[in-house]
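New to this. Explain the following:
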Amino acid sequence: MTLFDDDRYDWRETYFVYFEPSHRPKLTEIRRALRISAPFLSTLDYKTEPDGSLVAMTIASYEDHAALEIVHRDGNDVRAEARYFSHSLKEEASEEEYVKLQKIAQCKTRFDVHHFEQTADTHIFNITKVPELNFSKKTTPPTDVFSKALKMDAADKGKFHFDPNSYDQCRNDNVGEEPEDTFGMDSGTTERINPEMLITVLEILCRISRGVVLDPASGIVL
C-alpha cells in the first residue's frame, strides 16, 4: 500500500532530486538530518538496501495536512529523462540553471518526491494515525519526531509543462491527472496544506546527496 491508494490523501505534485550514484544517501543520514531540521515530521514507513541506502520512505506532517513518498529510481530510463529535461530547458535557463541542467544530464539516479495533501482527517476513519505503509516485509518501524528546517525560495513558474499522465508513478486511474483546483481555491483547503514540509525535505535530500532539484511540471531547477 502507498499513499496513491489511501483515500485520505490526494497527489498534488512530484519533484525529482538528481544525484550521482556514489552520493546516494543512507536512511540513517536522512533521519539524522530530519531530527535536526524538522521536528514536525513523522516516519510512517521505509525500505533500504542491505547497505542501508534508501529505497523508499514515507513521512507525514499532520499539522500541515501533508505527506511525502520518497522513492529511489535509477537506470537508463532515468538517464534518458534527465537528458530530455536538460535539453528542453537549457534555452531559457540562466547561467546558474544551465550549470545545474548540465549536471542533471549526466545523472541516472534520482529520488522521486511525491507530495500529497491530506484531504480527510484521520479521526473520520476511526483511527489515531496513518497506518503503516508496507514497502517491505517487516515490523512497524518506530515513529520519529523531527526539528524545523531551512526554506528555499521558489522562482516564478516557467513555460515548460510536464504531463503527469506520462509518469509511471501516477498511472492509477484516481491520480492520473492533477486536480483542477491545484491550490484549493474552490475546495476551501487553501489554508490547510503548508508547503514547508516539501521545501524542507527537498533541501535536506539535495544537501545530503549533493544533488539538483527539478520541478518537472514547471521546469524550475533549484
Q: What stands out?
A: The beta strands are 9-18, 42-48, 54-61, 66-74, 109-118, 212-215, 220-221. The chain has four helices and seven strands. The longest strand covers residues 9-18.
